[in-house]
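fold-stage: in
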Amino acid sequence: MIAQPFVMFSGSHLVTLLIIISIAFLLPAIIKNNTYANKIAIAKIIGISAILLELIKPFIWHYSMDFPWARLIPIHMCNLSTLFIGIFLITERRIFFEVSFFWGIGGGINALLTPDIPKDFPDPQFILFFIGHGLLIVAIVYASLSLNNRPTLKSVRNGIYVSLAFLPVIYIINQIIGPPANYWYLGTKPVGESLLDFFPEPPLHIPVLITLGIVVFYLIYSPYWIYDKFKKQGAQ
């Protein structure tokens, strides 16, 4: 089977998304009645798997697909989200959940919907891309549902502060390495269709990215805010 050019929301794209969503929500449902100790054990397995995958992927991209090392440092937002949620599942350090939650939901879901890949299934890039981003979503949903974690308003602020602290560092790394390094897409827009197509040309898109990121963080948190508000009113 020869891989065709990737088409957004094609049959294979939609099936892949359905598989990821199914695994993400079926796993917590299946182990719902397990002991907390068993849930923690599964969390550590997911966490270790997530970290190992992020550390191994650059070698797969380079040696199997001839990608240059300049593009393969695991510091894209989704790479860092996966590493952070992996660290959280192993250590339960709250800050790693907070940052990964907003980066993973905001950036990871956007990546899954508008993937930066040239070819469709069964191209190796397609498979590796969706395994990596799919595991990120599975890990975040597991941490949220099985381990009963959720963001707070303070989490939103922490996510924004960490993002703003990382952004200039990532930009400087891009400048030092030079093309084809394009971490966080601060240098050029993604190859495939994406929301960045509607933004100004780099680097003028960075202020828009920052503004949009802040708005997205609060939008992601809004269902929790609404739930807390109605719960508080119901208790009165």
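fold-stage: in (second)
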Amino acid sequence: MPGKKQKVKKAIGLAIMLVAIPLLIVLGVWLFEDRKYNVISMVIALLSCVPFFIRFEKGKNGAREIVVIAVMTAFSVIGRLAFSPIPAFKPVTAITIIAGIALGAESGFMVGSLTAIVSNIFFGQGPWTPFQMFVWGILGFVSGAVFYKKQTPNRWILSLAGLVGGVAYSLLMDVWSTVSMEGSFNFVRYLSYVGTSLPFMAMYAVSNVVFLLVLAKPFLTKINRIKTKYGIFQK
């Protein structure tokens, strides 16, 4: 029964992250024409927490897990602010990937999603925020699904993850740019946006590699020690 219960919780979490949140974004774009983006962003922020809290257990360990997620989100937000003067050179995707590797898919999604809405308090909220929350969230989710509870990735795998993460972020955000400008998805227009964003894509992918190579080892070492000491993120 406990195993079945865990599977049900996991299925609910997956449905929220991969079905409910994308549908909510579609609702915001086509039904509300991006006019309710603040409301949509807040609902996405709440939904991104649900997969974590449905497996949350009362006690010190649950509270400690929340603290670790909050700290990772804070590092990501501060990193984006610190490197704001340098276009396309930001550590958000790298830290989100690290969060997924260290804490798991649900927590990785949560860190990426919350980073977008919190950091945009400083960078400016807009119709792009819900989609940005989903994109960074899904990058954290995928990294957790691929690497969590496996051997710590070596520098070559981390470099590949950084490149893929940077390219994926740019390609997915260009989907929003196309829909926002055209009112619907136009593949030809999408390709033109991808073409014009290639310099940004290249710079962002390189920055992800740099930040992962610099930050992954100290972050993962420290987080793994905390996980072992307090027995958290063991499910």
